[in-house]
Amino acid sequence: MKKIVFLLIALAFSASIIYAQGTMENRIPMLGENAPAFTAESTNGTLHFPKDFGKNWKIIFSHPMDFTPVCSSELLELANMQQEFEKLGVSIIVVSTDNLESHNNWKKSLETLSYKKRETASIKFPLVDDYSRTIARAYGMIHSSTNETKNVRGVFIIDPENKIRAVSFYPMEVGRNIEEIKRMVIAMQTVKTNTVMTPANWQPGGDVLIPFNKNGGSDNANAAKNDPKQYEISWYMIFKKLD
Q1: pTM of the shown model
Q2: Would you name the residues annotated as active-site residues?
């Protein structure tokens, strides 16, 4: 009897360890944490992340499957805007759990399409083979309520220090707004460079906010009065015009 009880306890303990490991392997990295490193094959050859991207900003786009209509439209938009991202010092990485052969065939097909009456475009960014789901689990891309084997459609914005700066997930049926993702990067770069904040609906070139200091309200207000580039809406909302 004691042996049976001991065996049941051991099995329960082992199961709890396996469950905990599985949970950790599929954990979404939080803001401010290091982006998980990985090595994988891609349409651009073997990719070592983040080493291959130096001090660039990086955006990882995860996709559930190749040759799907919504994802195809997103890759065509990314291809159309890839030079704009390059000018911002941003590298694009596309990941899905399909294999490299499927990625190559999808890329080849997309490069023949005239989308929105534009000229065809070459896809320069890598499509990464994550058939093993190693990357998907490291980034928490597998959501069991949606699918046990395919990635959800996620976006991970990563800064030059390899810190996660923004994470978002989208439903399968709704395409991502690539212009908004670009705006998000510009906002983050503006914040980082100028030590400011951006208000709701901020657009590049717009006025920014001075970081809030609850204990220094009067000091902030006086600073605003003495700086022609600053103006006060309230003691807790002081704007600044950037050059």
Answers
A1: 0.83
A2: 71
